[in-house]
Specification:
Largest sheet: 8 strands, parallel
Helix content: 25-40%
Low-confidence stretches: 1-40
Radius of gyration: 24 Å
Strand order of the largest sheet: 8-15-16-17-18-19-20-21
Distance between the termini: 57 Å
Structural class: alpha/beta
Number of helices: 15
Shape: globular
Strand content: 15-25%
Mean pLDDT: 91
Bound molecules: zinc ion
Number of strands: 24
Length: about 575
């Protein structure tokens, strides 16, 4: 059932050891460099409370860093280690805490920027509040032909139903309105938008999509693949809009200590924005890009992944595919019907054959695969597909399963096979726990957001935010990983508390784990010698702070590639 070549736990363990050996080689090379040229060290970072994790998962403490002229880590210094005699630059950390630049393993960078530059409803607590905000935005932006926005969540409003086109009557002076749900898996249109897209009672939803109906007419909400019926009529942003969104996103990422991010589902327009920024020297964070589907990959990168560009700041190395939708909009594909909608089991967004064909095409050209799977049926299908493809595409493939939110407990051990990486988002668990319990019922949560089980099974774990679904704030993420409690401290003791993990494990998933998941662990991640010197200076020791104090962590300085990117004088 798992294919003809079962991989044992021991094989997984040896993958881990090989990885460690690789880091060991990088260390040996850098050490040789230090011995040969001790006086040429460019910078000495001194007097810090340095915290990182090693490749095998141990917490490492140090109190200084030597950085080479090209911005790489030469050595982590412990108390008593000899210091370079004449560094060109010396930085006194005054005892403050230094951690590696944090890495978001799953985000949507341009969407994040656009969501900050356009109408965003994620802070609205009721439908009325949302309507008031949409109306105010429409008045403030009279030149826009469409009112475009995102971030709404009917669960957060306590509405008990989806919003409808009728809810938008009288707003926007007759202009079309089109608003994405917070998870991007549904859109909410007004009557003018439905009319512009020609959506009527007899319109058929495409496969993998749904047109919600009220009294025999389209309600205004389009789910998953049905969104495309509207998207093709929406005015497209211009290159200057992309550039502004990218700069905004980078500013926000750096402000919360994120120095690298995997962009999960990039289009050619987004790639071109990265290239313009790289050429102009304004690409400040490192981007591990995953093309939205094999067509985009071929369009952007040709027949193979790109090399690292702009001093390890940009690489297209993988392809992102979507196998199902999200739990909130009941698009996640389940093995049994939803507990709160007994006629629905969610939607596969492609057939098993399509999935394997697309994965095969990408793998054949050497691209890494990152596939979105939220429901237990989607995860099961994807595990089957990986098992079949791993027969043909051997070696270090690092198959990524994005989200892996609801997994049948009998499928959990299969994540340990074929080098699969679990790419998960701690903040989803703390935002979703009430909704997920309602959707699944209490008896089907045995493999829900199962971080502890993944680690116990030696599955490489990478953490991200899925920004703009959740804020790209790893301090919120680490708190969620430690507590499994929402911002109100609920539920008491944490949701499914057996799945909590500890600080070292969480930090690893936001540093080495996220870099490893993006094939970048020799470039950056945990301040190992030879890596880019990407690090943060924080106002508190996050290894000792109470979880409830983590969200207030201030990022005082951000250094990327041995240069100060955010902080006092923002130099050298
Ligand atoms: Zn995503």
């Amino acid at each position: 059932m798992w294919g003809h070549k079962p991989v044992t736990m021991n094989d997984c363990h040896s993958t881990r050891l090989r990885r460690t050996g690789f880091i060991g080689l990088a260390f040996a090379g850098a050490a040789a460099l230090l011995i040969a040229t001790p006086a040429f060290a460019d910078a000495l970072i001194e007097n810090v409370n340095g915290i990182t994790v090693d490749a095998t998962g141990g917490l490492v403490r140090f109190n200084g860093l030597v950085i080479s002229q090209d911005g790489k880590v030469v050595k982590r210094l412990k108390v008593g280690d000899p210091r370079p005699e004449r560094p060109d630059f010396k930085f006194d950390g005054k005892g403050r805490t230094l951690v590696p630049g944090l890495i978001d393993a799953h985000g949507h960078v341009l969407d994040m920027g656009f969501s900050k530059l356009t109408l965003n409803l994620s802070d609205t607590r009721t439908l009325d509040e949302a309507k008031a905000k949409i109306a105010a935005y429409a008045v403030a932006n009279p030149e826009r032909p469409w009112i475009i926005g995102d971030g709404w969540n009917q669960e957060q409003w306590g509405l008990g139903r989806f919003p409808t086109a009728a809810d938008l009557t009288g707003i926007g002076n007759g202009r079309p309105i089109w608003l994405s749900r917070v998870d991007g898996h549904a859109g909410w249109a007004n009557d003018a938008a439905l009319k512009a897209a020609g959506i009527v009672a007899t319109t058929k939803a495409p496969a993998g999509g749904q047109i919600l109906m009220v009294a025999g007419k389209p309600s205004g909400v389009l789910v998953d693949n049905a969104r495309a019926l509207m998207d093709k009529f929406v005015p497209k942003p211009l290159p200057k809009d992309y550039d502004a969104a990218l700069q905004k996103a980078q500013q926000l990422l750096l402000s919360r200590g994120v120095t690298a991010i995997a962009d999960m589902g990039m289009t050619i327009n987004e790639w071109q924005a990265y290239r313009r920024a790289g050429d102009a020297g304004t690409l400040r964070v490192r981007v591990m890009a995953y093309a939205a589907g094999t067509e985009q990959a071929a369009l952007i990168a040709g027949s193979a992944p790109t090399p690292w560009l702009y001093g390890d700041r940009l690489r297209l190395g993988g392809v992102k595919l979507l196998l199902d939708g999200a739990l909130g909009s009941r698009g996640a594909w389940l093995k049994a019907p939803y507990a709160d909608a007994p006629t629905q089991s969610g939607l596969p967004r492609m057939t098993g054959t399509q999935l394997r064909n697309q994965m095969s095409r990408a793998a054949m050209d050497g691209f890494q695969l990152a596939v979105h799977a939220i429901g237990d049926q989607a995860n099961s299908e994807l595990l089957d597909a990986i098992a079949a493809l791993a027969e043909t595409y051997q070696g270090d493939r690092r198959w990524r399963i994005e989200h892996a939110q609801i997994v049948d407990p009998t499928d959990l051990p299969r994540f340990a096979l074929n080098g699969i990486i679990a790419s998960m988002q701690p903040q989803h668990a703390t935002s979703d726990w009430k909704m997920a319990t309602a959707r699944l019922g209490p008896d089907r949560l045995g493999g829900a957001y199962a971080w502890r089980t993944m680690l116990k099974n030696w599955v490489p774990l990478a953490f991200g935010s899925d920004v703009p679904v959740e804020p790209a704030d790893p301090f919120l993420g680490i708190k969620a990983a430690l507590t499994r409690q929402d911002a109100n401290g609920e539920p008491a003791g944490g949701w499914l508390p057996d799945q909590k993990i500890d600080f070292t494990e969480a930090l690893r998933a936001y540093t080495f784990g996220a870099a490893y998941a993006g094939l970048a662990e020799t470039k950056f991640g945990n301040l190992a010698p030879g890596q880019q010197a990407d690090f943060l200076i924080l106002d508190r020791d996050i290894s000792a702070a109470a979880p409830s104090d983590l969200p207030a962590t201030q990022v005082l300085e951000v250094w990327v590639g041995g240069r100060r990117a955010v902080g006092e004088e923002a130099k050298p």
